[in-house]
Design a protein that fits this description.
Blueprint: H1 4-12, H2 18-25, H3 28-41, E1 47-51, H4 57-63, E2 68-73, H5 76-86, E3 95-99, E4 113-116, H6 128-143, E5 149-151, E6 154-164, E7 167-168, E8 171-172, E9 177-179, E10 188-190, E11 195-201, E12 209-217, E13 222-238, E14 243-248, E15 251-262, E16 267-275, H7 280-284, E17 288-293
Parallel strand pairs: 1-2, 1-4, 2-3, 4-5
Antiparallel strand pairs: 6-10, 6-11, 6-13, 7-8, 9-15, 12-16, 13-14, 13-15, 16-17
């Protein structure tokens, strides 16, 4: 019988269908970013652990230089799929695919790098933060320090008020929308600049829940009816070039329960709270917005000569 955590894992994403992992292989930005970051971080002779290996693609990138790669997945379908694909690729023999729970697994020896891509927008649904925090505690107990390098190294999360179109051929439906970054979305109007609400540094202890209250100065007249969540993954810091290798998740726009008309110069307060790995509805239930300051209602100051 499945435990409560295993049932939640199935529901929230750890047992996502095989074809979803196949779609991730076709995400050029994701694949290119991880390949470049892994090539930067993994050095010849290293030992590497991947938690949540999926198809085995990221372990394949690591095996180009590493002596040994441990690739762990909890989903038996993905274990079978990773073994099949790795057998077709160069250096696949250096990857050991292991059917195990990432919350419990530790490698038989110290490793130099840990790759973990259990990432959803805003760190919802999947278990990235909880898995890494659990791993660090158990690894230090077994092997002592230092900790391995983590990839991604850090995550920046931001929020942004939007005016979002919810008319679908005349059918009104305020739904959660996922948007590809870097392109113009004709039904989306950005009403203010994004504000960072959390920075996760995987080398440090991290909270597994967030509670945030922030203020935005509205840039243009409109109707605030959604909040966009932005997740930027810092895959690797390239010290010699003073730059980073990044991967930006698809944006997630969550509709507000009560849309708010706003004018340029208004100050909007947004608040929310949720836990890492929680469901999208759990965030929606605690997402609030209100206009704190209406610029147009303030008395005009008349200058006298």
């Amino acid at each position: 019988m499945l435990s409560e955590r295993e049932i939640e894992s199935c529901y929230l994403g750890q047992f996502i269908p095989v074809h979803y992992h196949h779609n991730m292989l076709m995400d050029t930005n994701r694949m290119h970013g991880f390949r470049a970051a892994i090539a930067q971080v993994v050095k010849p002779g290293m030992k590497v652990l991947e938690l949540g290996g999926g198809t085995g693609a990221l372990s394949f990138f690591a095996a180009a230089k590493a002596d040994k790669v441990y690739c762990v997945d909890f989903n038996p379908d993905m274990v079978q799929e990773a073994r099949r694909f790795l057998a077709m690729n160069a250096n696949g023999h250096k990857v050991e695919v292991i059917h195990a729970d990432a919350f419990e697994y530790l490698p038989p020896e110290p490793v130099d790098v840990v790759i973990c891509e259990m990432i959803h927008v805003a760190m919802l649904r999947e278990k990235q933060v909880e898995v890494i925090e659990s791993f660090k505690r158990r690894y230090l107990q077994k092997f002592g320090g230092p900790l391995p390098v983590f990839l991604p190294e850090a995550v920046l999360m931001a929020a942004q008020p939007l005016q979002q179109e919810y008319d679908f051929e005349g059918f009104y439906a305020p739904i959660v929308q996922f948007q590809q970054p870097g392109i113009t979305h004709t039904g989306t109007v950005e009403l203010s600049q994004p504000a960072v609400y959390s920075v996760i540094d995987f080398t440090q202890p991290n909270d597994t829940s967030w509670s945030w209250e922030g203020k935005f100065v509205i840039d243009r007249d409109g109707l605030v009816n959604a909040v966009r969540f932005i997740t930027k993954n810092i895959l690797s810091v390239v010290q010699e070039r003073a730059t980073t290798i990044d991967w930006l998740n698809h944006f997630m726009a969550l509709p507000l329960e009560k849309p708010l008309p706003v004018k340029q110069g208004d100050v909007l307060a947004v608040s929310f709270a949720y836990r890492a790995g929680g469901s999208i509805p759990s965030l929606q239930a605690r997402l609030r917005a209100e206009v704190l300051y209406q610029a147009a209602l303030q008395p005009q100051v008349v200058a006298h000569a």
